[in-house]
Amino acid sequence: MKNKPAARIVAAILATAALTAHAADLLDEVKSRGTLRIGMEGTYPPFNYKNDKGELDGFDVDIAKALATKLGVKPEFTTTEWSGILAGLQAGKFDVIVNQVAATDKRRETFDFSEPYVISYPQLIIRTNETRKLDTPAELKGKKIGVGQGSNYADLAKSIDGAEVRTYPGAPEYLQDLAAGRIDVAINDSLLIPYLREKTKLPVKAGAPIGQPESNAIPFRKGNPKFKQAIDKALDDIKRDGTYAKVSTRWFERDVSKPPVAAR
To answer: In CATH, which superfamily holds the domain spanning 122-212?
Structure first.
């Protein structure tokens, strides 16, 4: 009986410590650490990839660096396959993902998101010598569609009645299978197509837009209101001071924070 008050005190101390730890905002952790830990694929040009020097390069890399600067910390990059990137964020392996993550309702159940920083639309990718009409869901019935595992494009492909959906670790793998004729079409971000046309030797080209325009944003763990406010402010700041426009024009020759004009 004499031990019960002591036990209650210990329990109260532990509960208080747990609440304090839970109340700690990601912004405080980032500031204290001095780095913003950023997850990305590193194999998704022109958004993020290794250049000829073996260094991470691309639109997302430039945006992430600019945001870290606005937060007053250094960027620290971790690369991982897309299929495990959201799980890595949930496990605390990095603070944010800057990798063209669509802010879907399903993902918002698990993560909080910044304001959108890219607006684009899903687009079919076909071989350059393709003669079949593959523009609509009805025309894709019975066709093999390549998509990234765990991507919103995989969800879109699975919604196409009668299609055979094949999932891959990332874009390089399914684009190689498309070029080799092992799949009929692929689905990816419309902003990827000009890069493929200009920078690679793969015999692929843009197909028809499919689905609706989507907003890509930066996900992070829930329960960090100060961090959300800070990351949204950083995004607004790089748009206001011209940094965003400079980066966007470098990689896409336009401002990709604005809705695109769907074109083939």
So the answer is: Periplasmic binding protein-like II (3.40.190.10)
